[in-house]
Amino acid sequence: MEGASVVTSATDGSPGPDPRGLVPHPHWSLARRIAFRFGSLYVGLYILVTQVLGTIFIPGIDVPDPGTRGPARAVVEWTAKRVIGVSAPLVVTGSGSGDKVFDWTQAFCMLVLAGLGAALWSVLDRRRRSYATADRWLRLAVRIAVGSTLILYGLDKVVPLQMPYPNLSRLLEPYGNFSPMGVLWASIGASPAYEIFTGCAETLGGILVLLPRTALLGALVCLADAIEVFVLNMTYDVPVKLFSLHLVVFCLYLIAPEWPRLRDFFLSDRAVEPSARAPLFRSPRANRVASWVLVLYSGYLLVMNVRSARAAWAEFGGGAPRPAYYGIWDVETVVVDGTSSPALPENPERWRRLVFSFPGAATAQRMDESFIQFKAELGVQDRRLGLTKRDDAKWSAAFLVDRPARDRLVLEGDMDHRRARLELRRVDETKMLLPARGFHWVQEYPFNR
């Protein structure tokens, strides 16, 4: 928004002489004009139909992406079926993935629409020789899109929500069972300090790119953040590849006009001239007002996202309430219909452990190290525990719970229509190596296990 030159337009749309005697912007080449028409249409569509719109106007609130509703969704579904040949119903919402068939088809539709729009625009506006003013406004829109997104994702790491500390079941799962994404999530989650650091880097970039005087520095920081995220997504198979690639391209677009100055600063001994970018408005007062609006908007994004992150932390993050029997419980004795079930590898269906990590849920680990996920209904006052398998609604268990000692539980009742009694002993998970190891300034030998 800051700069030294102002450009006026002649009647044919080309840059005219500047009233203050400054050198006008040169005419754009045909290729650059066509690229701008296509790029501005694609970027506009992308902001309007994807999650970016929510981060700009309603940060921190989970609302459906505009492109998943109404005519936009119908266009994507029709294209997937008629053009791409996808016969199965599309997964649209609720999956947590940004690389669904729907998302790739949506990107294809936006590319086609932007191409057709650019062709029509080129025919109707063929006399114009420059889009300098429109380019400044597009760059502002991209700065807002990148900044709001980086602030959202950054604060979800500053308050460690995106990669939570490994839950109790995760501490028991064999490393070889982890997916590549699971390895990434667990390793970053196991080091909240590192997660907070990366979140601060993303939040800082998001704020700097929004503020006029630090926009270039912010774009550079955001580019570094976006490249790191994109590489992690590609190498750990995280399904946000498409979105993170767009962030990289958006940052490169913001930085491109300053490349000669950056080249001179980093790669040569030549003096770096001030930026020649023109401001948004001709009036200095209007530009000052616009700058303060962006400052206030940055504060709005920070406040809204911090509020949302704190609420999420208290609801399902590290500050969420724990179930009454929170912990890892070794199943020492299992008696079903009067017959003892020994804890042997030859008895894979027998429960080895029962884990309570979250309210309304429980996990059983079998002797073969596999897990069963349950919905749990716990009545502390009447000492009752009800379990239902998440993948088999016909299976159920209803136990009466006795707690003879703080580290002992006895469950007795019906389990899958059979009489069962289970005796459990609490495991102190804080003594496991991962949570117990901590940080050490001095180490005589590497402790790499």
3D architecture notes:
It is built from 13 helices and eleven strands. With 449 residues, the chain is of the alpha+beta class. It has two domains: 8-315, no CATH class; 327-433, Lipocalin. Helix 5 packs antiparallel against helix 8, helix 5 (132-158) runs parallel beside helix 12 (284-315) and helix 8 packs across helix 9. The radius of gyration is 29 Å and the shape is elongated. The two termini are 53 Å apart. The relative contact order is 0.09.
Given helix and strand content, the structural type is alpha+beta
- The rounded distance between the terminal residues' Cα atoms is 53 Å
Shape: elongated
Please tally the β strands and state the result: 11
Radius of gyration, in angstroms, nearest whole number: 29 Å
Return the average pLDDT rounded to an integer. 91
Give the secondary structure arrangement, pairings included.
Layout: E1 8-9, E2 15-16, H1 30-49, H2 52-57, H3 70-84, H4 101-124, H5 132-158, H6 168-172, H7 180-189, H8 192-210, H9 215-235, H10 241-255, H11 259-267, H12 284-315, E3 327-336, E4 339-340, E5 351-356, E6 361-366, E7 371-379, E8 384-389, E9 392-405, E10 408-415, E11 418-427, H13 433-437
Antiparallel strand pairs: 1-2, 3-4, 3-5, 3-11, 5-6, 6-7, 7-8, 8-9, 9-10, 10-11
